[in-house]
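=== RUN LOG ===
request id: a7f3
mode: sequence -> structure
chains: 1
length: 288
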Amino acid sequence: MEIPYTSQSREDTGLYNAKLGIWLFLASEVMLFGALFSTYIMLRVGALPGYWPHGLLNIPIGTFNTAVLITSSVTVVLSWNALKLGDFAKYRKLQAITLLCALGFLGIKSYEYREKFGHYEVWLKAPITVKHGDKEVQTDRLLGHIEHNGAHPFFWKTQTLAEKKVEAFKFEPDPFHYMMSAKEIAHARKESAGHEHKAIEIKSADVVRLSAFVPGHSTYFAVYFTLTALHALHVFGGALVIFYIWGPGAKMWQTDRERYINRVEVSGLFWHFVDLVWIFLFPVLYLL
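=== RESULT ===
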């Protein structure tokens, strides 16, 4: 028995089954991400001045990853167009670029995660004087990197200092803190580029709290990892579907071309949605 409307459009909707199904699925995805974005906005607007981290994400890397995803959207459209024109070889080449872009995006995001896991914030019992950019300021909160016995410890927390009996550790402060404005942070980074940052010694007894930039660090990083990890799962899932259609599922091109083209179109619609989510995520998380 042949399933109706797998290739041809329905009379009532003007859509074939898979296309109708993907639009319904994307509607549920809009509600999912819409709820998460709305939650983020409420938390961000309600945060006290100076308590919401900003300037801690790598904007150039985020910008490059945005360009990678936009490029993949272009190749998805061009590959579908190549199939409509009957050029299967061109379709395979273009979708191969799409898959490479997906792998590149996930690889860069993994690098960003690792960078965050090696970055720390220290809350001190009493303020100390440190140089931020071209200013000396009194602060009881420091951002930067830890070196202990020549290694960067991942996932250190306050209790870890006691567990490992660490009496003191070397801390290399960033040239900025997130109570600066975005302009001041950019200036401080520019001024410190190429200069060796002087490490300071911090005694464990003077530490109130120590945390890497992991979800437990703050509400901001909890939101950051939730949204970006969920998005990365969508990228991975979309890439798997595209790979199957591009590889093992390509046999359908010989038996039912119209249905195969429809499959490529449906996977492309999901991919465009994934790209669109990132286009919203990038400015909200990286720039605001």
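=== NOTES ===
The mean pLDDT is 86.
The radius of gyration is 24 Å.
=== END ===
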